[in-house]
Every structure is written in structure tokens, then in C-alpha cells.
Write a structure and sequence with these properties.
Length: 268
Amino acid sequence: MLSKRILTMQDLSCVGQCSLTVALPVLSAYGVETCVLPTALLSNHTMFEKWSCLDLTDEARNIMNVWKQNGFKFDAFYLGYLGSASLMDVARDCFKEFSGEGCKIIIDPAFGDNGKLYPAFDSEYVAAMRKLIKSADIILPNLTEACFLCGAEYRQDASIEYIEEVIGKLSLLTDATIVLTGAEKDGLIGEVIYSDKKFSYVWAEKLPVRYHGTGDIFAAAFTANYLETASLEKASAFAGELVANSIRATDPAHGYGVNFEYALKNAK
Ligand code: PXL
């Protein structure tokens, strides 16, 4: 049986249950051949007080030169935390060089949460991402990222009407389908999806705790399921369930990520 072959581009945080250490196991568990282009090597993710970071732009160029000679192609690209604007040029060149037939580009902007940018990022990074999402088929921003990208005010208790207004603004910047994650209403959490100029919604019970790294689990599981089902709603529900099960399995004393390993191991 032929499985899809994906290239995921994001950082390798040695400690932290995020980016590549999440994407690889999740995509593999769901039957996707997962190739990686690590964008940066970090001691740990940047929600810890201290971290080190080696940008891998130069090595990515070396890797791509060899890939070209080997003639590699991919069925999809899935991008998460990149680390610097120069990696976005690398990404664009990857799309040009290594897209197989019908290749899908899925981008999680992965630069902020709770109304703030992650510590390593600034408005230049956001501006570069604003350009990169023009190449995407699907983007997976949370509300913070959507607001930064389109210049809207971030509102903590955003109504669905406001979220739709933000998505409307964001859709002026890209033709990509927009799957806005972490929307909330009436005790529920879910996705507001904007595709072919129409909105749809996927809701689940909102759990009373929030943890770091759940966006990366959502994006990896969404990508795996979407490649199989081609359904935005099914992929969102599937990914939301893995996130919820991971949160349920997490000891609150474990503050830097969620127990997705348990959820994956026990998935039916
Ligand atoms: O989970 C997103 C993420 C990925 N990679 C690194 C991060 C973060 C969020 O802070 O710091 C290095």
C-alpha cells in the first residue's frame, strides 16, 4: 500500500513536546511517511525561561541541493515554527523544487498565543509569514496569529461574529482555506473554518485547563487526517479529539507540554 509522503518543516526542540518531537510520532502513528527539514535546533522550547537556538538556514540549503540531485518529491508540506524569516525563503524554494502532483501546502503560522508573540519573534517575522501564507492551501492560525497577520485587535473573549470578521480580513491576504483553531463559545472549543467563501464549525467540550504545545499536536493530527479524508471538518474533529485526550492524560504538575504519547498509545 502506498502511503503519502510529507515534508514537515519546523524546529527540533530537544526538550518540550512540541514541533518535530510531536509531528514525527503523530504523523507516523497515522500512517504518513514523514520526512523532515529541521529549521532550528533548540535546547528546549521558548516557554522555558532559558533556551539556546541554532538557526539551520545554511544547512537547509545544503540538504536541498542534495535532495534535488536525488529527485525527491513530496505529496504535502506541513510547516510549523520556523524560527527566522530566512527559513520562509527556504520554504518557498522547497515548494518550487519538491512538490509532487497535487501537492498540498499546510501552514501553521506558530508564532504566538494569548494575544502575544512567542519570545523569539517580532513584527518582521509576522510580515514574512504574511507573505508566506499566500503560498498555502490551508492555514491553521489561532486567533492571536490571525489578528497579528491581518492587523486586527486581539480580543480575549472574542465572539464568533468577531472571529468571522478577523477571518474575513485575513482572507484578503491569502486564497488559502482558513482553519482558525481554539475558538470558544458557550463552554465549547473548536475550529471556525472558512473555505470557498463559506463558514463551517467544529465544536467539542472545552476542558478547564490549557497547556503549551497543543497547537502542534492539533496541526500534525489535522494534517495526517486531512491527507486521508480530504475533509476539513473530519480532520478538525479528529485532531481536536487527540488534543483533548492528551490534555486529559496530562498531570497538571507537568507544565511544559501534554501527554500525547499516552493518548496516541491508547487511541482506538
Ligand atoms: O509550540 C510552538 C513552539 C514550537 N517550537 C518552539 C517554541 C514554540 C512555542 O513557544 O518555542 C521552539
